[in-house]
User: Which sequence fits this backbone?
């Protein structure tokens, strides 16, 4: 199945990164390489490192970036970006991009088990390796499952859903996405099921985040890769749900914070000064034209940081 991925907020990303022809840039979530190709087109003597942990994405990225000699494609998790750069003898970079959304290819390919719209084996692994959704759903305790659904899905019926999942798997292992959807629906009151979107949306998001360690990877990348930015370098992150956006907003705010001494202190004793500035005070969102063309852009938020110290 062809890897399809329409780059979200493409123009805003390229503008936000303020790409220099001789700069070094990292796309930590290359996907279909839409953002990566736009970056590569602007490079002359610079370098682009396109990273993704999805094997199908890597194949597409390599084919799409083949005409650009300044680009290299690496299969890896973006949490391991420092190690990737070390192997390439790249100490500092001028720009980093993360697009944290799940690609259309992953959602639309039933074999991957990401979608509650297709009946498929439970999987949800972006890398195709390690812990799967089947493992989480069938092995986690009710308490563990409740935590996942509550913390990563912000699901108010987390406990009820976890209990129903446990009841279903005691009869037989939950093997498919539709079997999981049925268990989730059984844990949500009928009135609540009729409100908003698909009743399984939050639970599927939560399990996917747990399977792929998404928030852990994001936090690690934000911390380690800021140190690999050159002065004047920019960090651009596209988020698609509140948990990701909150983490990015808080980390970026921390880098932009100066003196934290109490207001009544006559002089600063903490010695803290801002290490970065926000390129845009508010996150950039899609305009009417993009919203009409790409449904995936509706929940996208772009935040961009520039390192100043």
Assistant:
């Amino acid at each position: 199945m062809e890897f399809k991925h329409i780059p979200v907020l493409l123009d805003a990303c390229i503008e936000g990164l303020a790409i220099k022809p001789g700069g070094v840039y990292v796309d930590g979530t290359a996907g279909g390489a839409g953002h990566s190709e736009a970056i590569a087109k602007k490079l002359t003597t610079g370098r682009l490192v396109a990273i993704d942990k999805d094997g199908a994405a890597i194949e597409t990225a390599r084919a799409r970036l083949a005409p650009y000699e300044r680009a290299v494609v690496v299969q890896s998790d973006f949490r391991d970006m420092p190690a990737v750069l070390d192997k390439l003898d790249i100490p500092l970079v001028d720009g980093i991009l993360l697009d944290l959304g799940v690609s259309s290819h992953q959602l639309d390919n039933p074999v991957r088990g990401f979608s509650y719209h297709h009946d498929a084996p439970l999987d949800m692994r972006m890398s195709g390796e390690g812990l799967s959704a089947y493992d989480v759903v069938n092995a986690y305790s009710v308490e563990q499952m409740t935590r996942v659904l509550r913390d990563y899905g912000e699901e108010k019926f987390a406990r009820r859903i976890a209990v129903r999942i446990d009841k279903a798997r005691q009869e037989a292992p939950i093997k498919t996405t539709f079997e999981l959807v049925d268990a989730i629906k059984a844990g949500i009151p009928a009135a609540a099921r009729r409100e908003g979107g698909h009743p399984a949306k939050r639970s599927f998001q939560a399990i996917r985040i747990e399977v792929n360690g998404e928030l852990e990877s994001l936090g690690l990348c934000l911390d380690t890769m800021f140190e690999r930015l050159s002065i004047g370098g920019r960090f651009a992150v596209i988020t698609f749900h509140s948990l990701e956006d909150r983490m990015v907003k808080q980390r970026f705010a921390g880098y932009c914070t100066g003196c934290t001494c109490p207001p009544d202190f006559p002089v600063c004793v903490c010695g803290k000064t801002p290490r970065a500035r926000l390129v845009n005070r508010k996150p950039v969102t899609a305009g009417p034209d993009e919203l009409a063309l790409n449904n995936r852009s509706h929940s996208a938020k772009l935040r961009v940081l520039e390192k100043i110290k």
Remarks:
- The two ends are 45 Å apart (CA to CA).
- DSSP finds 14 helices and seven strands in the chain.
- Strands lie at 24-27, 47-52, 71-75, 93-99, 229-239, 276-278, 301-307.
- Residues 242-256 form the longest helix (15 residues).
